[in-house]
Amino acid sequence: MSAMDACGLLEGIAPLKRLVAAHGAVQLIAAGHMHRPILGSLGGAPVLVAPSSSHQLELNLRPGAPVACRLEPPMIGLYRWTAEDGMACHFSHVEPFPGPFPT
């Protein structure tokens, strides 16, 4: 999302990428404040940007697209790490929905 990239958050990304790659054991880089769930990688480690607990940003990948908000359901990411199982992340909507319904 070019408008978010233009905020300068990618400055200094090359040294961080080298540091993560040199470490060799980074299991997850978790971040937020993009108001959009995103999965990627950096230096060989998975990167997870959590969704927003309020509005989401419009998913518009066209270069130069303006930033716009969508009133998609707010979500949170719940993270759990154990030595036996490693990292797990579960996403959950914040607002209530009908259910659960036995299957």
Output the keywords:
103 residues; alpha+beta; 3-stranded mixed beta sheet; two-stranded antiparallel ribbon; 2 helices
Spatially, the strands of the biggest sheet line up as 1-3-2
Total number of domains: 1
Distance between the termini: 39 Å
Write the H/E string, N to C.
HHEEEEEEE
What does this 3D model show about the protein?
By secondary structure, the protein is α+β, with helices and mostly antiparallel strands. It has one domain. It is built from two helices and seven strands. The strands form three sheets. It has a three-stranded mixed sheet. The chain has a two-stranded antiparallel sheet with strand order 4-5. It has a two-stranded antiparallel sheet with strand order 6-7.
Brief overview:
The protein is an alpha+beta fold and 103 residues long. It contains 2 helices and 7 strands; from the N terminus they run H-H-E-E-E-E-E-E-E.
SSE layout and pairing:
Blueprint: H1 2-9, H2 13-23, E1 29-31, E2 38-42, E3 45-49, E4 56-57, E5 69-70, E6 75-82, E7 86-93
Parallel strand pairs: 1-3
Antiparallel strand pairs: 2-3, 4-5, 6-7
